[in-house]
Design the sequence.
């Protein structure tokens, strides 16, 4: 099969013919229908992710069609499925308590085993998979494995966002746009922050009440002014100190900060304004992925027509274009996200 292989950090991926994956007993092999290109992939490509090594096939936002099913699999050839990027074991205390996204035995295609920047991907622990609704295109569904589900869990499973509350979003990449769209569905009033005017205009078109360019000065003060005291919930979607502190400092007393952006590599440790946390009686949440049992709560909104995630998708690309998309994360990116839908070119 064709695959995009990391051979050297920060360099173009190598498009190679590699062996088709073997089917796990407790899993399936999917013919990949679509795979998103995510900032988390960039962390691995750039060498900042400690578990991603040369030889890795990236890609963790995918959906596909079953071409082979293991002896212990409940799925059948021909089933179309979407996968969370965290594949939980299902038997450990974390999984049994419903927190599969914290499973210590998790499997991670795209990071520590071959991912979906390829024609086929092996998926173990396939009890994590969900059936892809017929009404949902694979291109849109690919984002459900990471950014959309992560944003949904951040808003509902962690911050418990309520209708009428102010939601601030720092960074309007895939996670930020997902949080904007979903926050609006939940009835929140949304403010977005970025450094690219084109992305802020795009976010305004998706329903943001205010869009602030961080280069224009004190973001936190401006959010507190607009909201009459501060946001109730703030999402940090980049994983850097500047936006993390702006997210914390823009909150009103008893506000909730959710760290969605991945602090890794040189940003793994950062200095934050803990006095703002102390004085404001703030709650700080970390979040990563979403437990697989929560998929129906999101899919029902999409299939029921209550939310349209298609504005998230800006570009459908070929496998050979992934390197260009990854390199774009070195600087401010254009609006929307890219999804690989052509695996032959």
Sequence:
């Amino acid at each position: 099969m064709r695959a995009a292989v990391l051979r050297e950090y920060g360099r173009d991926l190598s498009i190679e013919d590699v062996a088709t994956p073997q089917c796990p007993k407790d899993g399936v092999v999917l013919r990949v229908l679509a795979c998103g290109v995510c900032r988390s992939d960039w962390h691995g490509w750039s060498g900042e992710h400690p578990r991603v090594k040369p030889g890795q096939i990236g890609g963790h936002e995918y959906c596909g069609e079953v071409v082979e099913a293991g002896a212990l699999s409940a799925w059948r050839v021909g089933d179309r499925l979407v996968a969370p990027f965290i594949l939980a074991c299902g038997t450990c205390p974390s999984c049994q308590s419903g927190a599969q996204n914290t499973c210590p035995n998790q499997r991670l295609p795209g990071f520590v085993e071959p991912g979906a920047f390829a024609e086929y991907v092996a998926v173990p622990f396939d009890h994590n998979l969900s059936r892809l609704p017929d009404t949902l295109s694979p291109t849109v569904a690919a984002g459900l494995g990471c950014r959309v589900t992560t944003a949904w869990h951040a808003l509902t499973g962690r911050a418990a966002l309520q209708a009428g509350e102010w939601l601030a979003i720092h960074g309007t990449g895939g996670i930020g746009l997902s949080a904007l769209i979903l926050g609006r569905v939940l009835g929140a009033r949304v403010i977005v922050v970025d450094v690219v005017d084109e992305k802020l205009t795009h976010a305004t078109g998706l329903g943001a009440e205010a869009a602030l360019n961080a280069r224009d000065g004190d973001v936190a003060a401006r959010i507190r002014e607009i909201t009459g005291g501060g946001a109730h919930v703030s999402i940090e979607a980049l994983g850097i100190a500047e936006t993390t502190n702006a997210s914390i400092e823009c909150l009103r007393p008893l506000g909730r900060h959710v760290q969605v952006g991945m602090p890794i590599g040189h940003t793994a440790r950062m200095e934050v304004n803990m006095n703002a946390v102390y004085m404001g009686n703030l709650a700080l949440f970390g979040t990563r992925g979403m437990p697989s049992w929560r998929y129906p709560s999101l899919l029902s909104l999409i299939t029921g027509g209550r939310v349209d995630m298609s504005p998230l998708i800006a570009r459908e690309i070929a496998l050979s274009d992934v390197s260009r998309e990854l390199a774009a994360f070195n600087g401010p990116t254009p609006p929307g996200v890219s999804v690989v839908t052509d695996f032959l070119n």
Summary: Residues 120 and 275 are 49 Å apart (CA to CA). The two ends are 12 Å apart (CA to CA).
